[in-house]
Amino acid sequence: MSHEDFPTDDPAVVTCGLPYANGDLHIGHLRTYVGGDVYSRALERLGQETAFVSGSDMHGTPVAVNAEQEGVSPERFALDWHERYAATFPKFNVEFDNYGHTHDETNTAVTQQLVRDLDEGGHLYEKEIMVAYDPVDDQFLPDRYVEGTCPYCGAHARGDECDEGCQRHLEPGEIEDPESTITGNPAEYRERTHKFFEVSAFADYLSGFLDRLEGTSNARNQPREWIEQGLQDWCITRDMDWGIDYPGGEATESPRGGGETADHDLVLYVWVDAPIEYISSTKQYTDRVGADAFDWEAAWKEGASDAHPEGGEIVHVIGRDIIQHHTIFWPAMLEATAHTEPRAVMASGFVTLGGKGFSTSRDRAVWADEYLDEGFHPDPLRYYLATNGGFQQDVDFSWEKFRDRVNTELVGTVGNFLYRSLLFAHRNYDDAPIADATSDEVAARIDEAIADFEAAVNDYSVRAVGDAVTDLARYGNEYIQRSEPWKLVDDEPAEAAQVIHDCVAIAKAIAVLFEPIAPEKAERLWAQLGEDGSVHEVTVEAAREGPAGDLAEPTELFAQIEDERVEALNEKLEARVAEAEDDESADGEAEGDSESGDDGESDTSDDTTDEPDMTDIEPLSDDRISFDDFQELDIRIGRIEEAEGIEGADDLLRLRVDLGAETRTIVAGLKQLHDVDDLPGTKVVVLANMEKAELFGVESNGMVLAAGEEADLLTTYEDAGPGTKVK
């Protein structure tokens, strides 16, 4: 890779985390797929040679268990979901160059060869480990079917990850006090021989890799803590029948008992073959279009091409729950086998619904098919998901917020400018260009928008890609309003023609720059402009060329969403949730939701643990404190002066807070829940006599108070200044 600004001379591969073939997609899942599609399209607008690939993650225990419950083979079960995903993504204008799956022949062959290369390079070894076993049900338990206590922080954890505590990856046999999640029985550990990848040997390499890594800051900072704590070698085989067989070798004890057997009785851990699908899917793309169109080896293999000796530009777009896999295990595998390391990892936040977590068990979600069935166009949702907050921040979806963004920005700003400009041009002029050239002022403003677009791509900001367009449309509205061409058309026809030519030039630039965010609407605008070919085939240079086609009569690109429609949508959602909760009560238990797609790989899987509905608010405490106890709390008004992230901490910020008498450093878990740049100047309520604590090497001297899981900051209604005591 080059690490030069895009576009570069090396081929780029943009990937999205593989959806786990185990359930319906909702709009939370779509966030990284839309983000990846936006980013790959934006690279292509810059003229970057780009392949956009992904695939379905077919393996893992949940697929096998659910297939058995449905009475079908795991392959058939997973393929059914794969086919549904492959049909759903294009409906949201997510257009992969190749969408494969982990169980196909290509990925099986590529995975087994890469594992052989690891073995031949001396990076694999055998080790006797303790595997959880349910003695009552007489079965071994893959890691996602074990729960217990994290050995590092003491929190409740699942078998492969401390998901409720320190977030560490856990190896088989590490979890304490194991229990079977299938039966609830206490589990015991039994010795088995498994294969390990010596990740610990790559600690120095990975530290340097994180220094080079581009993308979102959480993808760089979160893994540093794991390296500093000491990397554990990685068990890459599992006691299962469903998966890619370990590729041969010497005999080992069978993981299912019965004496000696070949290594192929072990299957590879799902996190081995899942990221390798990125390579396999790119290879399938080359097999289809030819190496002259895109050379997968030049992108993925160091030294495979004289023209690209260091490989291509690899960009992974994922959910933040799978950062560790993409910044520790995966780059170590690539380095060990002379493959190209990732240039960037873009790790998204999750999507919540009306301030609460998505819950598939309670049907508390906006499903992908449901959104389309309601008659909504996909591009407004793409715009909402791409531009509503920074990519690594959580995004809250509500029908009210969706309505407001569509009506204000897409209809009121972008759509309003385009329709009024093109309608005036169509009615008053025969065709374009209306004037000889774009005015210097407008040409400079279009150049500025292109520069903003290019900077957004190199900053890995899909939000800024959209902002470049809305800012240009906002300027266009201001330009046409102050120029008033309708007053000039009779008395100053040349001046009027120049203004309208400029507006059509802005419209053409919007079509080009908006293509990554709203590809279908941009293509429709391109046709209204009478331009040749497809907007999907042009680069940003076309935005500078000015209008040249015959203008068609325009139609409005975006439709207003009425309040009554939102009310009806909310009523439907509430009715679904109530029905699902009634079903849960009848069944006696709720299905647990997982952030990371069960045992497989996910992108932004927002099936987060159920958050309480308003009817489930925690009851008020019966334990009372005296007025004197309350008086001992020194609660003050503060004003945030500075806010910055803490290296190695995914959620924490270092705040400098003015408390009137002094300015203190306070550590607060706000990084994923607030726009960091917006925090300075915010008034907050601070518990000033909280005990000091050291977090990630920073001494915290106080506590900022906030409400709920979304950290709604407490503030003042009027003008109480810093240092004012709360009584």
Automatic annotation (TrEMBL):
Q: How is the cofactor bound?
A: Binds 1 zinc ion per subunit.
The record's InterPro entries line, in alphabetical order, gives:
aa-tRNA-synth_I_CS, Anticodon_Met, Met-tRNA-synth_bsu_C, Met-tRNA_ligase_1, Met-tRNA_synth, Methionyl/Leucyl_tRNA_Synth, MetRS_core, MetRS_Zn
- Listed GO MF terms: ATP binding; metal ion binding; methionine-tRNA ligase activity; tRNA binding
Q: Which residues of this UniProt protein bind Zn(2+)?
A: 150, 153, 162, 166
Q: Which residue ranges does the record annotate as region Disordered?
A: 577-623
Q: Where is the TRNA-binding domain?
A: 629-727
Q: Which GO terms describe its cellular component?
A: aminoacyl-tRNA synthetase multienzyme complex; cytosol
Major location category of this protein? cytoplasm
The keyword tRNA-binding belongs to this UniProt entry's keyword annotation: yes
Q: From the record, which residues define motif 'HIGH' region?
A: 19-29
- Describe the reaction catalysed, as an equation: tRNA(Met) + L-methionine + ATP = L-methionyl-tRNA(Met) + AMP + diphosphate
Q: Which UniProt keywords apply?
A: Aminoacyl-tRNA synthetase, ATP-binding, Cytoplasm, Ligase, Metal-binding, Nucleotide-binding, Protein biosynthesis, RNA-binding, tRNA-binding, Zinc
PANTHER family, sorted? METHIONINE--TRNA LIGASE, METHIONINE--TRNA LIGASE, CYTOPLASMIC
Subunit structure as annotated in this protein's UniProt entry = Homodimer.
Q: What does this protein do?
A: Is required not only for elongation of protein synthesis but also for the initiation of all mRNA translation through initiator tRNA(fMet) aminoacylation.
Family of the protein in this entry: Belongs to the class-I aminoacyl-tRNA synthetase family. MetG type 1 subfamily.
This protein is called what?
Methionine--tRNA ligase
Q: Which organism is it from?
A: Halorubrum kocurii JCM 14978
